[in-house]
């Protein structure tokens, strides 16, 4: 669960270029909810995600993650709950290391769900099965440097590595923006499956209105640092692309 109470972030305070990126936002995201955030460029979406992740600290207000007050906690102290996927597929993996070594590295960083850390065959077999579930044929390339894979393949592996963590919350900041259309569709479908299978609480920022319609249980629109629309459940399921497009008028 994520609980934001009156969180704010202003850049360049007191200067002519002051920006109120996030302004007094209060939001409760329940366990298992999948929230899609839409909004114009500069409306504060990424800053809001940074506040949740601890990459930026809130100026006032309060942030609870899984009922723990994390308002002053830095990003690294929130990683036990939170995994984050960025637009750039190069972030999150070490290019020169093989797929299997990237999984080892990830396993060393935190305790992974159902994974015993080590170089042994059992570890490799566990990774092989997980990677095979992506249906990209990558289970036969476990010794290949991850830097030789496509952006879509890397993004799928990064997702898999993050959900094999004990994390409860997955933050996705335009995870498919750098991918070709087909890879983007694949990666979103993989993300959705992983979220459901692992019963994660998820927040997706996207400019892709089709994804905003197809995915998630709730959609939020931000404008000028504030949440101006918040629609969930059956009402969310009824929204069509034209209606969503009209929100940007
Ligand atoms: N580090 C920073 N220093 C100064 N201003 C910033 C900083 N980060 C964000 N901003 C400003 O805060 C506002 C909100 O930015 P943010 O990146 O959160 O918007 P966004 O909705 O994610 O935009 P986009 O859709 O373009 O990614 C913008 O006006 C941006 O220029």
TrEMBL record:
Positions of the ABC transporter domain: 2-249
Localization, UniProt: Cell membrane
The entry's keywords: ATP-binding, Cell membrane, Membrane, Nucleotide-binding, Transport
UniProt keyword Magnesium present: no
Recorded topology in the membrane: Peripheral membrane protein
PANTHER family registered for this protein in UniProt: NITRATE ABC TRANSPORTER ATP-BINDING PROTEIN, TAURINE IMPORT ATP-BINDING PROTEIN-RELATED
Identification of the protein by name: ATP-binding cassette domain-containing protein
């Amino acid at each position: 669960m994520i609980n934001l109470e009156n969180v704010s972030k202003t850049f360049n305070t007191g200067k002519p270029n002051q920006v109120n990126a996030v302004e007094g936002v209060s939001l409760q995201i329940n366990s298992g909810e999948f929230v899609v955030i839409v909004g114009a460029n500069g409306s504060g979406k990424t800053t809001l995600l940074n506040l949740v992740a601890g990459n930026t600290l809130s100026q006032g207000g309060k942030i609870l993650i899984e009922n723990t007050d994390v308002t002053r906690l830095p990003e690294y102290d929130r990683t036990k709950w939170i995994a984050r996927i960025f637009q750039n597929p190069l972030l999150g993996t070490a290019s020169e290391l093989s797929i299997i070594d990237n999984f080892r590295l990830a396993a060393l960083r935190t305790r992974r769900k159902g994974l015993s850390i080590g170089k042994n065959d059992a570890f490799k077999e566990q990774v092989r099965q997980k990677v095979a579930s992506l249906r990209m044929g990558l289970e036969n390339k476990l010794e290949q440097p991850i830097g030789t894979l496509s952006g879509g393949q890397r993004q799928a592996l990064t997702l898999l590595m993050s959900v094999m963590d004990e994390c409860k919350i997955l933050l996705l900041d335009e995870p498919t923006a750098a991918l070709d259309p087909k890879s983007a569709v694949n990666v979103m479908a993989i993300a959705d499956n992983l979220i459901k299978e692992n019963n994660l609480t998820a927040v997706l920022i996207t400019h892709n209105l089709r994804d905003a319609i197809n995915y998630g249980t709730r959609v939020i629109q931000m404008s000028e640092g504030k949440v101006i629309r918040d629609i969930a459940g059956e009402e969310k399921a009824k929204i069509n692309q034209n209606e969503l497009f009209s929100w940007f008028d």
